[in-house]
Structures are given as structure tokens and as C-alpha cells.
Amino acid sequence: MPTSTWNRHHVLSLADFTTAEYDTVLQTAASFQEVLSRRTKKVPSLQGQVVANLFFEPSTRTRSSFELAAKRLSADTLNFAAATSSMTKGETILDTAKTYLAMGTDIMVIRHREAGVPQAIAQEMDRLGVRVSVLNAGDGQHEHPSQALLDLFTICTLIDPNHPHLELLKGKKIAIVGDILHSRVARSNIWSLTASGAQVHLAAPPTLLPKLFAEYVCEEKAESRQLFLHWQLEPALQDADFVMTLRLQKERMTAHLLPSLREYHQLFGITRTKLQLCKSNVKVLHPGPVNRGVEISSDLMDDPEFSLIQSQVTSGIAIRMALLYLLGSGKVSGI
Ligand code: NCD
Question: What share of the chain is helix, strand, coil (3-state, %, to 5)?
Fold first, then answer.
């Protein structure tokens, strides 16, 4: 496993990921993808370690994917769901995390609806001087690193299944369409895709893509990254190699930002007809869960010629195995 370029103790954001780190994650995931194709899909890498999935917000695929990834690495897993936990009795997030620490947790996978919670827990673990790693599984509108890494892996393995690496995306045109304002998936993908040298075109109605979004997300690096904003779909789709569509995050919308879902679908929903503007071999991604017939037409979603949605879910396990392995392998010590 290529671990030499890995010194990271937590994975909280992709903002400062280096090319070497992306390539390490991609190559490690490729090795695990091979493991997952075997009859016995399990390796002993994290035997004896405890991975706690602390999900303070609902999730289907991310939580199951982290759980399966940890089990494939032979770790012991603890699953926490806020609704059935002592948080309903008033326990704080930090006290919950410390309870899992006291049980010998090595890696905490954390999802929370507020931005910054995984970071706060990581800081507390560092302050306590314990060797617990924190992995951000989605915090508010901030970041969702493992989702962007699995998106990257899905695209790179399509181009070169044997040697997925960041440079494969150089010069590719990638459109990200939909509720960008509320999307942590978009924010993490902007870091990884622009780091690869791809041209990233964001398209959404102005209410879901504020004019200052690029500066706001990338700060001083915006100019050096190939990031373009559009308030119409067509220029983003023109000659695109990949189209990433995002769910309308109704639970995060505090105001009426759209006239109607029908109008949104007409203007920004991805359909076969609209894909004709793209390269002929264009592929479509969506992190899920999907509002069928809103951000993407139902038939397109199920069409294996265009849709990478199922491969994204499959890639998620290998990517999360890679992240857990890279964070956890430093903790294994002899008896
Ligand atoms: C995303 C999330 O939770 O941020 N989904 C996911 O993790 N697969 C996107 C979304 O909820 O729309």
C-alpha cells in the first residue's frame, strides 16, 4: 500500500490536500477495489481497532458505506444515531465523543448538520493528547471530503482503471449543477477537481449560486483555479466530459429560493436532450439521495450508458477503506 506520502492525522477538509495525498488515497482505494472483487472481501489491516460512526444527522449511503468499509478492514464498529442516543437526555456532542473515546475508539467518523463540529471534536482530541483520528463525513454546508474523493475515484478509474491518479482530469470539463449554495459535496469537489487541473463550471439559479461564491469558497486561490460560474445551464454543459448534479437540499433552505420544482427541472434538470450539448461520451454523477425528476430525469438516472450513480456508491466503499486504512495504520503497534 502506498502510504509514504501520508502524514495526516485527521481528514476534515480537502482545502489543503496535496497532489501526493490525492494520489495516495486513489491508489490505496484501487488496491482495496481489487480486494472487494475477491471471493473473500476482507483484510486484517485494522484488526483490533475501533471505528465509531457518530452520525448526528440522517444518512443512508455514507453511514452504511463507512460501516462496511471498517468491517472489510476487520475493525470493530460502533454505530451511533442521535435520535436513539443519550443526546435526547441532554448530553453534549463533546461528552458523547469522550464517551466513545473512553471505550477505546481509534477513529471517529462524524456527520453533523452544523459546519465545524468534526473540527471541534478533532481539536478536543488533540488537546487531550489522545491518538484518535477524526474523519469528516459531512458537516453542514461546509465539506464532505469522502464524497468528493469517491467522485474523483469514480471518474479517474473510468479513465484509467489500473492507475487512477489526479492528473488524469487535467483539461477535462466538469459541470456541477444544482443547489451549490447548500452543498458540502460541491465545496469539497471544487477543491479536488480544481486541484486536478480540470475546468470546473458551476451552474445554478442565482439564488443557489451567489455571485461571490468563488471568492467565498476558494478565497485568494480563486484566480489560480479554473472555476467558472453560470446562471444558465447551457454554457456549463457545452462540451462537458462529466456532469455532476446535486440534490435540492430543501432541509437547508431557509427561504423560498425557487418559483417551483417544475420550473427548476425545466431550466436546470439534467435530461437526455440537454446532454446532447456535452461530449458524446459524457457521464453523469449524483451523490444521492436523488429527487427523481427534479435535478435529473428518472430515465437518465437509471441509464447505465450515462449514469455513474451506482458506481459512485460502489467506489465509496473502497475510498472509505483507503481513508480508514491510512488514518488507522499508523496506530497499529506490536504487542
Ligand atoms: C450528500 C450529503 O449528505 O451531503 N449525500 C451523501 O452523502 N451521499 C448530498 C445530499 O444530501 O444531497
Answer: 45, 15, 40
Helices 145-159, 61-72: crossing angle, 10 deg rounding: 70
The grid cell for 332 is 497499529
* Nearest atom, ligand 1, residue 287 CA: 8
Give me the helix-helix angle, 61-72 and 309-328, nearest 10°: 50
Rg (CA), the chain: 20
Cell of 38: 475477491
Query: What does the alpha-carbon distance between residue 327 and residue 304 come to, in Å, rounded to a whole number?
Result: 34
The pLDDT tens digits of the residues spanning 197-231 come to 999 999 999 999 988 887 766 665 555 679 999 99
- For ligand 1, the distance from its centroid to the CA atom of residue 13, given in whole angstroms, is 15
Residues within 6 Å of ligand 1 by CB: 61-62, 138, 144, 147, 184-185, 247, 249, 287-288
Distance CA 198, CA 129 (A): 39
Residue ranges of domains in the chain, CATH in brackets: 19-143+315-329 (3.40.50.1370), 145-313 (3.40.50.1370)
CA of 60 from ligand 1 middle (Å) equals: 9
Give CA–CA dist 95/72, Å, rounded.
29
Q: pTM to 2 decimals?
A: 0.95
Share of the chain above pLDDT 90, in %: 82
Closest of 32, 39, 103, 38 to residue 70, by C-alpha: 32
Query: What does the DSSP 8-state code read for residue 252?
Result: G
Confidence band of 196 (pLDDT split at 50, 70, 90): very high
Catalogue the E-assigned strands of the chain.
50-55, 76-81, 107-112, 133-139, 173-177, 199-203, 227-230, 242-245, 283-285
Cell of 196: 486536478
